[in-house]
Write a structure and sequence with these properties.
The complex is a heterodimer. By secondary structure, chain A is of the alpha/beta class. Chain A is 23% helix and 25% strand. Chain A has helices at residues 14-25, 67-77, 87-94, 151-159, 218-231; strands at 3-7, 29-33, 44-47, 81-85, 101-103, 111-119, 135-142, 146-148, 163-168, 187-191, 197-200. The longest helix of chain A has 14 residues, at 218-231. Chain B has a three-stranded antiparallel β-sheet with strand order 2-1-3, with helices on one face. Chain B is elongated. In chain B, 16% of the residues are buried. The chains are: A alpha/beta, B alpha+beta.
């Protein structure tokens, strides 16, 4: 089981992701510079948070044209696992690996705080170690996390059970007040139809140690590791 | 030859920046404003190796694939001799 963390110019959560995989998942992990094109030795890659290309043009828009992204597309098509966190989620949407787009937060603020998300489905390689309905306390840190898609895409996401995380109150109730950025249907994370590509705005890699205020994020990485262990 | 590309959020897409700008200019006393939408403007200088038609096709493609995100934005291209 081998993980890769893709490093774009401007990525800044790459070391956090690397730390979590090596220390808490206990598996080999490499940094992958965005000019690399060979992902053949990896089972899962993480597109980390940050400000790739300074968020120029649109968040995630230019990273999409990095050489590694063609390989990430093929990697995903081959059924291997792709996890996009925050800026990584924005990149996956811009690249068309996930539907919809992430626009400016409705109140214009950069929001940086611990929030709650509800696990909407345990039927994903990233959540299968958790029960549906589990509430996770995880930090967010973004200005463009307002998920938007058209009506038919939303209906498709709902019908296919592809909304993986939704912003909620601490007790798990989904309310508009618990929505930190205006995301449609309180969406915090979605997966593709094949369920091997997940994008989410919250930062589970920053919530893996009690010392940091929460270790709830570990269950996402534990789920992925369990999926990979079962596949080997 | 120059290409001008205008990119705007689609009409149904919330534009919080436009709203904030509207609020500020109204605070300054400007009246009669119904709505403000913020967009992007690109000036692309062309080296003359493409004719007008080729330039338009090339820039239209660029606007569709890179300069705009068709899920949330519309674009308009003008070619100037």
């Amino acid at each position: 089981m081998k993980f890769g963390v893709i490093v774009f110019p401007g990525s800044n959560c790459d070391h956090d992701a690397y730390h979590v995989i090596s220390k808490h998942v206990g598996q080999p992990v490499d940094f992958i510079w965005h000019r690399e094109t060979d992902l053949s030795t990896y089972d899962a890659v993480i597109l980390p948070g940050g400000f790739s290309y300074g968020d120029y043009l649109r968040a995630g828009a230019l990273a999409r044209f990095s050489p590694v992204m063609n390989s990430v597309k093929k990697f995903a098509e081959s059924g291997r696992f792709v996890l996009g966190i925050c800026n990584g989620f924005q990149i996956l949407c811009e690249a068309g690996l996930l539907p919809g787009a992430l626009i400016r937060n409705r109140d214009l603020h950069f929001v940086c705080e611990h929030i709650h998300v509800r696990v909407e489905t345990s039927d994903s390689p990233f959540t299968n170690e958790m029960k549906t309905g589990t509430v996770l306390r995880i930090p967010i840190a973004h200005a463009e996390g307002n998920y938007i898609c058209d009506d038919s895409t939303l209906a498709e996401l709902q019908r296919e059970n592809r909304i993986v995380f939704r912003y909620c109150e601490p007790d798990g109730t989904v309310t508009d007040a618990a929505n930190p950025n205006g995301s449609r249907d309180n969406i915090a994370g979605i997966c593709n139809r094949e369920r091997n590509v997940l994008g989410l705005m919250p930062h589970p890699e920053r919530a893996c140690e009690d010392l940091l205020g929460s270790s709830d994020g570990r269950d996402i990485f534990r789920s992925l590791a369990a999926t990979l262990a079962a596949a080997v | 030859m120059k290409a001008k590309v205008y990119v705007n959020l689609k009409s149904g897409v919330l534009d919080p920046q436009g709203k904030a700008i509207q609020h500020s200019v109204e605070l300054l006393g400007y009246s009669g404003i119904a709505d403000v939408r913020q967009g992007k403007y690109f000036e692309i200088s062309l080296d003359g190796s493409l004719d007008n038609q080729q330039a338009r096709e090339s820039v239209e493609k660029m606007a569709r694939e890179v300069l705009s995100n068709p899920i949330i934005e519309d674009y308009r291209v003008e070619i100037e001799a």
